[in-house]
Structure formats: structure tokens, C-alpha cells
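Hi C.,

You asked whether I'd gotten around to modeling the 197-residue construct. I have! Everything is below, sequence then structure, no commentary in between.
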Amino acid sequence: PRELLRDEIGHYCRRLNLSQNPVQLCATEGTLKKEEFLHRILQEEIAGRERNRKARLLARAGFPVYKTLDGFEQRPVRFPSIDVKQDILSGTFIAAKQNLVFFGPVGTGKTHLAIALGVMACENSLSVRFHTVTELILRLSEAHKAGRLERLLKDLQQADLIILDEWGYIPVDRDGSQLLFRVIADAYETSSLIITT
């Protein structure tokens, strides 16, 4: 078990971008108690960094509320097939760069499902951006006028998943449509989109 402990310490050092000196010191000067303590410290550091990373991803996503699949009523939702349902609820559609459109009357859980999938993606260390279409067009227009459009578009391009909520609720002018089209075109085969309408 001590050899396994040192292997794990070495693995943790690599994950934390540290040298292998702690492993060498364990071999030459370490006692079992010291090695177990070092192992626990490194393990806690990795867990803390992971918690902080997920918290940053959630904050950066811009969700209006926190929703999970646990509180989601699936009964009114129709999926094309069991396989598609599994891809959606497991989040594998994101890695495959597939897009989803949730449509239906108000109150059927489209936004809840979109946010829950976004939260799940953040929990899996993926980058997500959530916007209502109206709010995104306003941000794009303001960024365009201020000369910051490319920066905003680059931020959106870096997301693994972009959620566009409330598509078609409010009419969009020609300039807004063109900016929105650019976001969607940039996401093609590089990010997944969820659109609710």
C-alpha cells in the first residue's frame, strides 16, 4: 500500500504542476504517517481547486436561477427516442457538438431543463453561457457600438455550451438578427447550442 500511496502522491503532484521532489523525499526520509499526511494535503488541495473551478464556471455561465434535473418534471416532455433522451439527460450531446431545440407552450419546463443541463455541464468542468435572446442581442449591439464585439464573440466561442432562452418572444431587428446569426454560425461544430422557444 505504501508504493500505491507514493504513486498517488506523484499523480497529485503532476495534477498540481509540482515537481516529483515530494515523492523522492518520501522514499528517502518519509515515514508512513508523513506520507499519509502529505497525501491528504495534496488530495484536499486538488478537491478545493476543483470546487473553486466549478463555482467559477457556474458564476460565469450567467444562469438566472440554479436548477437541476432532480427537480425537473419530465412527464410533459416528449423526446424523439429513448437514445436521444439518454444523450440529452447525460449531457453527451455536448461532447458531440450537437444542438437542441426545446419548444412548446409556456410553463412546460423548457428553461428549467436547459438550465439543469447547463449546471450539469459546469459540474463536469465544461464552460457554459446562458442568455435570453433579447439580452444577448442587446449585449452584442452595445459591444458592437463600443468596439468590443470581437471580445464578446470570442468569449462565446470558448463556451462548450451556449443556451439561448426565449427565442422568438420579442421581434428582432435586422442588425440584431445578423449579430445573433454570427453567434450561431461561430458555434457551428465548435460548441453545442440549446435554444428554447
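If it helps when you're writing up: The beta strands are 100-102, 128-132, 161-165, 192-196.

Thanks,
B.
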